[in-house]
## 1
Amino acid sequence: MIERYTMPRMGAHWSLENKFRAWLRVEVAVCEAWHELGSIPGEEMAEIRSRADFDLDRILELEKETRHDVIAFLSAVEEKVGPASRFIHLGCTSSDIVDTANALLLVEAGWLIDQDLAALLEALGEMSRRYQGRLVMGRTHGVHAEPTSFGLKMASFHAEFSRHRERWSRAIEGVRVGKISGAVGTYAHLSPEVEEITCRNLGLQPDPISTQIIQRDRHAEYFTSLALIAGGVERLATELRHLQRTEVLEAEEGFAKGQKGSSAMPHKKNPISAENLCGLARLVRSNALSSLENMALWHERDISHSSVERVIMPDSTILVDYMLQRLASILASLVIKPDNMDRNLHSSFGLFFSQRVLLDLVQHGLPRQKAYEMVQQVAMKAWERSEPFDELVRQDPEICAVLSQQELDELFDPAYYLIHEERILNRVLGGAP
């Protein structure tokens, strides 16, 4: 399933080939900085520009011997470049290259996910407007509360994913940082100017201070932001799963021709996509915890973070890219059941009008607790007898002694619950105040 949705794009981004291409971009950019500062002659720089390359299989072959991926990479590049390769990696340590290249990879992966968020927001905005005025029962604790609209329900998710996108933008900026500062960050064999020129040419900001690495609080923000996005996907997926329950069935996932829901029960149509997304959110959250664990390293650096990042960098970005695309696909084929929405709205005997009656009694001068007890007694009768709440209210002598039949008619109008819907939608989606 992941191959179908994301591998041609985000998966390829994290391939070994692309990782080493990012390393090469950084190495050449460092050489360009040295050249700009006069330390690499023009002829040798031209050789580096034209010949800098590698063969992936050769890197892997060399790594078996060296047991060091950066040295294997450099050796493979040297074989391609020739004598001018003596200037490659000048003054650098491995993390200068790896951390700066990871910044490139994380930022570019972030841009892909930002495109997914934009597409999802467009879909949620369209659904919010399309289902404006479509009354549905709002539920708290899983129990009928008061009516809302399906448009407002979708607008709530639009507002959340707008926040996710804002956070994600900040997280991308947080990792858009390179370091070319040497073994412990002192520039002993480099210079701040080399770092500044290198980062400028790569579209990065220099880290104001680094050790042998860029500090991992930046990465932790990135991966916790991914976890928050995954949590947003899970919240919407959980809503869709509940809406597809047999007892509710206000919306259901599209069911393709020839699709099967159960090996045993031919009638089954299950919310499998939403369930998959809820499961994947757990993986993204666990990876975020690993990124937090990576923050505390020994002194100027140890290597305990490296093995973790080789897993979570591709896995979390691939997963979230996939999750956002799959969620958008679910929404595009979502089947809405307006008849069931109406059925459910009225299945609790109109008890959702209870607060309107309560507040009107208070406005007529009754103490709130007295009014509450009067309305609650009638509401409990409606539950116990399965009779319409409005009819029992009209038969209650205490309430009718305070409220006229005409006043009651006005209280039992479901459209009342959406009197501010347009204003809320405009606040979320933009429009007239």
## 2
Amino acid sequence: MSASREKKQRQVSTANGPSDKQRREMEEAQKARSKTILYTVVGIVIAVLVIALLVWNSGIFEKNKVVATVGDQDYTVTELGFYFYPSYNYMANLFGGTVDADTAASIRQQALDSLHQYAALYTAALKDGYTVDDNIQAQVDGSVEQIRNYAAQNGTTFSVYLRSSYGPYMTEKVLRECLTQQAVANAYYSDHADSLTYDKAQLESYYDEHKDELDSFTYSAAFINGEAVSSTDADGNTVDPTDAEKATAMSVAKATAEDLAQQAEAGGDFDALAEEFAGRDDKSSFKAETTALGSALTSALNADCTAWLTDAARESGDITTIEVADSGYWVVKFVDRFLNEDSYGSADIRHILVLADVADGETTPTQEAMDAAKAEAQRILDEFAAGEQTPEAFGELAKQYSEDPGSKDSGGLYAGVTPTTSFFTGFLDWIFADGRQIGDTGLVENTQEGQSGWHVMYLQDHTVAWAATANSTLKSNDLSAWLEELQATYAMTTNDANAALVG
């Protein structure tokens, strides 16, 4: 075949389709492309699965599970952990690292209740125009810094400490959000509490309904023991008394109690007789004439004695015997009942703290430093005495000189202080000392570590005990009702996601 014919033949063959060799080459190429596509798809699927596994193990799905909704705000496992884990960890430490299922469930419910309360307060606060001001931000920053210090003291990192304290998903961002919500809620609650005030008529109305608890009672009492004594058999085993022996012991106690009562009613000195009769048995006792609030009588005596003492028909000098089943007899003398107008129940106090200098590396000041702090406190007190001597004048000095960050900006004021407020003993002893009067001033030493120095004191106001109790109870009841209403307004719904918490 000539060259021209061969060229023409190739042209004809091309026009009629690929040759066998070309088809084989094309098939091989197609197979290669198919494998490439298959391997690429498989690779993508594997990559997606690996990423999903990593994300799952990171807890991103678990920690973002919604456990509760309050109003229109969702709360996640991580946020519930803020309320759950501190209590859970405490119980675990208390019981050697284990918490049973019932206890864990109870802690979860308490955590949900706390979350609901804070969330309702926070939502209402925002609705009423509350914002995260500088004071709130300072509180949050201070709390975070304190936690950071705890972590350092425990030899661990901040992030690890957060997870061990507040759950495996806690982060600084979520912690700050929880602390901010708490701070705003607390400010809102505190402001509402301060707005609740009660006039004299309201306090007196409360007194009329609760005078048995608010009145003071003066009485004397003796308890005559009536318990039968156990015996020991020949083998040294304890033998419980029989019913007959118990009845005999109570009968003897009754006769003794009635003898005491009769001699006292005949004109004998009740306290002297009570001491003598009680001294016949080391299990008996007596209370010399004492005065106590009606609310404290039951714990000092018992319910039957309280009912007798608080009876409106009671008259001075009345004496009675009261049986305590299988135990003995009280002999009680009623002396007086009155409303105590002299006992302070709460006080509004202003103070100026002058800290003593502490040398670098030391935790307590020297006596010389304490003396210098006292001299400065006396100088400030003298400055006050030379001026107007009003609460406002003292407040200005507190703003100028006080080193107490908790009261400096409010002029050194702590309102509503009671004998059980968490101040150190010397501070409270000065406030509630017998004879303390409004306007009194003085100096009080503070030897607590980190607070060593002297306080300049000023009693701005006080409330008698019964009125303070009435005010406190009325306010507590109104606050509880207000919280219940808020929580009903901003109801909480929950789901099973809270079971994701430990326990």
